[in-house]
Specification:
Layout: E1 10-14, H1 21-32, E2 34-38, H2 57-62, E3 65-66, H3 79-95, E4 99-103, H4 107-114, E5 117-118, H5 126-139, H6 141-151, H7 164-177, H8 181-184, E6 186-187, E7 195-199, H9 204-221, H10 223-236, H11 241-245, H12 255-262, H13 268-296
Parallel strand pairs: 1-4, 1-7, 2-3, 2-4
Antiparallel strand pairs: 5-6
Length: 298
């Protein structure tokens, strides 16, 4: 990024957890007079700072960040809302002759922006959602994915069948609109020539080691206390610990495990071991998503 050529209209900095995306973006943004547009599905939630590795107040003061702290943890936030807000933020940054840096580990968010998904903004459907979640609980995620395939075989091209929340959302939209999820997601891709993809990655063993070290650092920073505070805040709103565990926000890595610690259902050591296991699985899934993004923008 030191040559005298024209600046790209958008830079997407992608890669798996613990690869160093945020650090790379923080170093690059000042060179380009850039601002960061978050592509992290958990950074949208307030009061979930330590466990999501959210940019610190100091980092946000140094470089302007967008799409952080938009909702409380009990509030819904859809892919359609994200796409709308991300496009608005990118346009705002560009209108001030700055460079937007789309940065984060949520592959679906990044693909939706870069590939121009036209995501339907159907409000959440609590009764339908409860029905599909009951099927997933009784028969497993594969049964839920089979329901989606029966209604829209092409939907799984953009949805991980293991991601129950995403599968349920697609089923909701299909049932409400009477149209296929894949048909509703019309694409108007961004001009590849105007987008630069920076894929930040490391050898898998280094990623695992960095993720482990970051996990232990977050525990030292008070992650358990953060989770305890979240449960207390939600309880004050009439949301008990069982209901809190089922919130979409709490599907962020580690939160459900630490809720179990706070409730005395498991030990911190057991929770840490489980979080490490889930983080490794997540890193592998992210790598698959981001390689698809990289390959389509060569």
């Amino acid at each position: 990024m030191t040559d005298a050529g024209p600046k790209p209209e958008l830079i997407a900095i992608i890669g798996p957890t613990a690869a160093g995306k945020s650090a790379h973006a923080m170093a690059l943004a000042p060179q380009l007079d850039g601002e960061i547009v978050s592509a992290d599905s958990r950074h949208v939630y307030r009061h979930m700072d330590i466990g999501t590795n959210k940019p610190t107040p100091e980092e946000q003061a140094a470089i302007r960040h967008h799409l952080i702290d938009l909702r409380d943890p009990h509030e819904d936030f859809s892919l359609g809302e994200y796409v709308m807000l991300a496009r608005a933020a990118i346009s705002d940054v560009q209108s001030r002759r700055k460079v937007p840096l789309l940065v984060g580990g949520t592959g679906q968010y990044v693909r939706a922006v870069l590939e121009g998904w036209q995501v339907p903004t159907v409000p959440p459907q609590p009764e339908l959602r409860a029905r599909w979640l009951a099927i997933a609980a009784e028969r497993g995620p594969d049964a839920l994915a089979a329901e989606l395939i029966a209604r829209d075989p092409a939907a799984l091209q953009s949805i991980d069948p293991r991601n129950v929340r995403r599968v349920v959302r697609a089923l909701e939209v299909i049932q409400v609109t009477g149209q296929r999820w894949s048909d509703l997601q019309r694409h108007q891709p961004m001009d590849h020539a105007r987008v630069q993809i920076i894929y930040v990655n490391l050898p898998r063993d280094q990623l695992y080691a960095r993720a482990d070290a970051r996990l232990h650092a977050m525990i030292q920073q008070g992650w358990v206390a953060e989770v305890r505070g979240l449960l207390e805040t939600l309880a004050a709103r009439g949301i008990d610990a069982n209901a809190a565990t089922r919130l979409p926000s709490m599907s962020a890595l580690g939160y459900r495990e630490l809720i179990a610690v706070v409730r005395g259902q498991t030990t911190l050591e057991q929770a840490i071991a489980q979080i490490k296991h889930e983080t490794r699985r997540f890193i592998r899934a992210q790598d698959t998503w981001f390689r698809k993004i990289e390959s389509t923008h060569l």
